[in-house]
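Support request from a user on the community tier.

User writes: "When I paste my structure tokens into the form, the page sometimes reloads and wipes my input. The last time it worked, I copied everything first. Here is what I submitted, just in case something in the input itself triggers the reload:"
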């Protein structure tokens, strides 16, 4: 299967973004011996919050690109919650500071959760409206073709 097509599945996207965050943090901590890096706590929490943002953006884009897949919405939300939980716990493990001790990131995470909810809600609404419109149009086309067929006989 094409790797890009695989990323459209939310759990794979969540795993890839989490592992990307781990690689960036590992590279950044490795580079800290050669060049100055921001404080370790800010760096690690910033990378993990950024990975949640990247998941949010890509997942929303993929959600708009999906063709009538009703199971995508709940899987997407569960993957987001799993990524957010795993990222928060991993950042806490790496830094020793909980989410309540890094105040700025707590408010950023709250904004991300609200923004993700809004994006997914908009995407779901657009898909639902498009589906209802297509059903209505197909019924109208069927009625019109029946009328034309009856008039032709």
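"...and here is what came back when it finally went through:"
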């Amino acid at each position: 299967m094409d790797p890009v097509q695989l990323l459209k599945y939310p759990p794979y996207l969540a795993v890839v973004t989490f592992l990307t965050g781990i690689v960036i943090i590992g590279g950044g901590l490795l580079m800290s011996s050669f060049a100055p890096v921001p404080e370790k706590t800010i760096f690690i929490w910033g990378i993990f919050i950024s990975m949640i943002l990247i998941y949010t953006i890509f997942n929303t884009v993929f959600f708009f690109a999906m063709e009538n897949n009703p199971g995508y919405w709940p899987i997407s939300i569960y993957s987001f919650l799993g990524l957010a939980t795993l990222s928060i716990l991993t950042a806490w493990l790496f830094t020793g500071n909980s989410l309540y001790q890094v105040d700025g990131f707590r408010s950023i995470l709250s904004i991300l959760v609200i923004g993700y909810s809004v994006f997914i809600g908009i995407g779901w609404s657009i898909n639902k409206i498009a589906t209802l419109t297509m059903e209505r149009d197909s019924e109208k086309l069927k009625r019109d073709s029946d009328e034309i067929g009856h008039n032709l006989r």
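Agent notes: The reload is a front-end session timeout and is unrelated to the input. The mean pLDDT is 84. The first helix runs from residue 3 to 7. Escalated to web team.
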